[in-house]
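Assess this today:

___
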Amino acid sequence: MNYRAAEEYILHRLRTELSERLLYHGLEHTLDVLRVAEALCASEGIVGREVTLVKTAALFHDAGFVYDRHAGHEREGCLIAQEALPHFGYTSSDIETICNMIMATKIPQEPANLLEQILCDADLDYLGRSDFYRIGRNLYEELTAYGLIQGEEAWNRLQLDFLSAHRYHTRTNIALREPVKQRYVAELRKLVASYKV
């Protein structure tokens, strides 16, 4: 399995094929998810080949956005992985594991094992970080550009609903990110309560 070649392949595609309107689902997000996924593997005791599978899934998890649409991007990312990864020595079993991780990130997240939990938590790690509002602003701008959200009030209501329903899965992020996320939930609840009904 040639991880480096797979990484080079998909990063090139993301750099050259992603729309400039993807202010959140761009290369920066993929690299952030990769970094966090690797750290979570270390924290959660994942070693060896499984780390490589998680890192590969992180790289491909939003690859479907090269087709410039939000709906179904997880499935498209799996199709890209299924087409590309055999050329880099990944087995059909490896690719199935990777695709299961990618599909687990679909909202609402439903991870079935620790590897899937790690990718899900890496994907939404920012919900419990200090850069939450900056990254959230990028997502707001992206959704606005695609006509998927109308105005800041609707966005803040959506954010509150999303954060309230979201759960971290790994013991690492439950301890590290959940308390910070709950602060943001309280802040958003206060803001949304100030809106006229």
About this structure: Residues 27-44 form the longest helix (18 residues).
